[in-house]
Automatic annotation (TrEMBL):
Region of interest called Disordered, as start-end residue ranges on this chain: 81-116, 624-699
Taxonomic source organism: Kuraishia capsulata CBS 1993
Residue ranges of every copy of the Zn(2)-C6 fungal-type domain listed in the record: 9-44
Protein name: Zn(2)-C6 fungal-type domain-containing protein
Biased composition (Low complexity): 85-101, 653-664, 683-696
Length: 743
């Protein structure tokens, strides 16, 4: 008989996730270098083949249940014979001679009457015996009969054997397994369309491949994801299937089916029924629904996904009382509630950032989301470290959640400031950059020391995007600044963009991109779009950069993204395709700079696949699309550029990068807008706030969605209404539009 195999690493090294080094030429037992250095016991455990053991137990269970079934059938046969002859011969069975046997009185025997009360009593007694297989699959099951209804909690018990005696009892576990083996290809949640095997495949795909990329680890706080979830939480169940089918290449053809089922369930939610301090069972159900909504929001990402994230935030806010003192939840629900409160915030803010949807004033339902935001410090403080964690070590779950919350908060703060004021002075821009650098200095040590390598890399990626987002986004909303300062801003943005794209050479990040929420692929597309725009206008700006290396990195990025996200149904597919088109145009410009390259005529912005509103083209922002075009003409009488008289442009015209003009003072080169709306109404027809500079005496333009919100015309709970100003992946699409429309 072969010796049992042992792990190649000792128990101490495996627990610490360290490489176990020792002389492998020596026979066991040996002491590894790390255990010898620390003076601890070095133990090499034997491997336990769990799959083989469970298979063996299943076989034994089948034999035991078959034996019990045979015994029950014999008892049934004898009991029926006894019942038939009871009128003529009441004592069919001889009186026992051994005191250990059943009583001799036939009326006291539980089998004297098949339909009698004694049989039911026996059924109740046997039902307190949970099946071995259930106990193996439920290590933390509560087996106290005082606190659990075993008839429903343990469906696969020996009670099933009585189905041959008492009518209408469920089949035995062995019979159920036999039916599953025969009908597995025919049984499905949607009969004739989806099989049970496909459902289990998608649930496993989500658990293994996708769940880890949620910003907060939640799934250890809810039951195991299995097919029973369709009854306990239909919304969460359909959400997982809709998302998993979108990212599982073998199930992409079923995505539309699951998405339609999910949307049907979502439409049945009654937000008015959600009240603070409700019944714990009801709150638990609402929390699972919120989890399903943020899963859809994170991975679907379009306007539909954005709406799902808003609904989840709204539902969390409805469960919260006005004061933390009144926040009375059972201890078993508080960790899940706090984790979901953090998760809804991060997902919502990420989608607001990439789709350029800052929080508008007087937005209907914003009170509930604001209430959620006020509870964030409490949510973060209650993410209790695991009991098995060393007390002197920071909890990685709490670190990861806090880092993501802080980054999202910083980005939303300066996005909000830019959209409110319409400009951000250069000194404030540098202050925000210093603030982000300070954040990284504070967090880098904590993350690298206490969080797994594959877990803190996405946080660092988000940090680089925060800097890129700041230094590119601000150029849409500033007063004219000297070209020297503009070059400095471009340098910061270019460094962040290159840092982002170079991270895609890492294996962990490549795996992340293929199955992660849409926030992460969008980061790479936006960085590539910025660098392509910078290459496109570098000659006009007088900005020097290594074009060959930059093009090579962008080309590698496009190749990787195309390989990892290759299905048209993917939310980021269209922007990745535009990245390739823009790359080809810029490469042609660089290879033949003297040739006049016509503008590529194509519709850049389209509605997402879940909206019935037709596609529309983006009205251009003139020569200041993301601030890359500049004007070198002198300022008359020292007046700011935004006060100069500029010819208004129609919203459907193409934007051109203005060519350099001679001037007397080189230090007066400035960036300025060449587009000024003729009226507030015309300005509100543009999809993004703060697109044009206004004279100082005019107030900042109001976001169109804010105007709608003030009239309560837009409600996330009204599914027949859509946001006509929504733009998927707004920042990259604006950059692509400016390159495509230029000549």
């Amino acid at each position: 008989m072969s010796q049992p195999k042992k792990y190649k690493s000792c128990a101490s090294c495996r627990k610490s996730k360290l490489k176990c080094e020792y002389d492998q030429t020596k026979p066991m037992p040996v002491i590894c270098d790390k255990c010898e250095l620390r003076g601890v016991e070095c133990v090499f455990d034997e491997k336990f083949d769990e799959k083989k053991a469970i298979t063996a137990i299943d076989e034994r269970l089948d034999k035991i249940e078959s034996s019990i079934g045979l015994m029950v059938s014999l008892i049934r046969q004898h009991s029926l014979e006894s019942h038939e002859s009871s009128s003529s011969s009441p004592n069919v069975f001889p009186s026992p001679t051994n005191s250990s046997t059943i009583t001799s009185k036939s009326e006291d025997s539980p089998m004297t009457n098949v339909h009698g009360q004694d049989v039911l009593n026996m059924r109740r007694g046997i039902s307190f015996l949970p099946s071995i297989k259930y106990i193996l699959n439920s290590r933390d099951v509560d087996i106290d009969p005082k606190t659990r209804n075993f008839d429903s909690a343990f469906p696969g018990t020996a009670t099933g054997m009585l189905s041959e005696i008492v009518p209408n009892l469920p089949d035995s576990e062995a019979a159920k397994r036999q039916k599953r083996r025969k009908l597995q290809s025919q049984v499905g949640i949607l009969p004739g369309q989806v099989t049970q095997g496909e459902i289990e495949q998608l649930l496993n795909f989500f658990t293994v491949r996708l769940a880890r990329y949620l910003p907060v680890l939640i799934f250890h706080q809810i039951p195991k994801l299995d097919i029973s979830l369709q009854h306990t939480s239909p919304l969460l169940f359909s959400s997982i299937l809709a998302v998993a089918s979108l990212y599982d290449s073998t199930m992409i053809n079923k995505h539309g089916l699951f998405l339609s089922q999910f949307e049907t369930i979502v439409r049945e939610i009654d937000p008015n029924s959600i009240q603070p301090n409700a019944d714990p069972a009801f709150i638990y159900q609402v929390l699972k629904d919120c989890l399903g909504l943020i899963i859809a929001g994170a991975w679907l990402g379009t306007e539909f996904g954005f709406r799902m994230s808003l609904m989840a935030s709204d539902m969390i806010g409805r469960l919260l009382p006005d004061s933390e003192i009144d926040f009375n939840l059972p201890p078993e629900l508080r960790p899940l509630f706090c984790s979901l409160g953090i998760g809804t915030y991060i997902i919502e803010q990420r989608l607001r950032i990439i789709h350029d949807r800052p929080v508008p004033y007087m937005y209907k339902g914003a009170d509930y989301r604001t209430k959620r935001d006020l509870y964030l410090p409490m949510f973060l403080s209650e993410t209790i470290p695991r009991k098995d964690f060393v007390a002197t070590k920071l909890d990685p779950t709490q670190l990861k959640a806090t880092a993501n919350v802080e980054l999202c908060s910083v980005m939303m703060m300066y996005q909000q400031e830019m959209n409110q004021s319409g400009r951000l002075p250069f000194n404030e821009l540098m202050s925000w950059n210093a603030h982000l650098n300070g954040w990284l200095a504070e967090w880098i040590g904590k993350l690298t020391a206490h969080v797994k390598l594959s877990s803190w890399k996405p946080v660092i990626l988000s940090f680089h995007f925060a800097k890129l987002f700041l230094n590119v986004r601000v150029l849409e909303h500033h007063e004219p600044i000297p070209q020297k300062e503009v070059i400095q801003v471009f340098g910061l943005a270019k460094n962040s963009a290159m840092d982002i794209l170079e991270m895609l050479y890492d294996d962990d990040i490549r795996r992340l991109v293929s199955v992660s929420p849409v926030f992460y692929p969008t980061i790479f597309v936006t960085a590539g779009a910025f660098l392509l725009k910078l290459l496109h206008v570098s000659a006009s700006l007088g900005y020097q950069l290594d074009k060959t290396y930059t093009i090579r990195v962008i080309r590698d990025t496009y190749k990787t993204l195309s390989e990892k996200i290759s299905f048209e149904e993917s939310p980021c597919f269209s922007t990745i395709d535009k990245l390739g088109e823009c790359l080809r145009k810029v490469e042609l410009e660089i290879s033949n700079p003297s040739a006049a390259i016509p503008a590529i005529k194509q519709e850049i912005l389209t509605r997402d696949t879940y909206s019935a509103i037709p596609s529309y083209a983006l009205p251009p922002r003139g020569n200041s699309v993301n601030g890359f075009a500049f004007q070198q003409s002198p300022q008359p009488n020292g007046a700011p550029m935004h006060q100069q008289q500029v010819q208004p442009m129609m919203a459907t015209s193409s934007s051109n990068v203005s060519s350099p003009q001679p001037q007397q003072d080189s230090e007066k080169k400035v960036i300025a807008n060449s587009m000024s709306p003729t009226s507030k109404t015309e300005a509100q027809q543009l999809p993004i706030q703060g697109q044009q500079h206004q004279p100082l005496q005019q107030p900042p333009l109001q976001h169109p969605l804010q105007a709608q919100a003030q009239n309560n015309d837009f409600d996330i709970w009204k599914f027949d209404m859509n946001d006509p100003y929504f733009m998927t992946d707004a920042h990259s699409n604006i950059l692509f539009q400016s390159v495509f429309n230029s000549k």
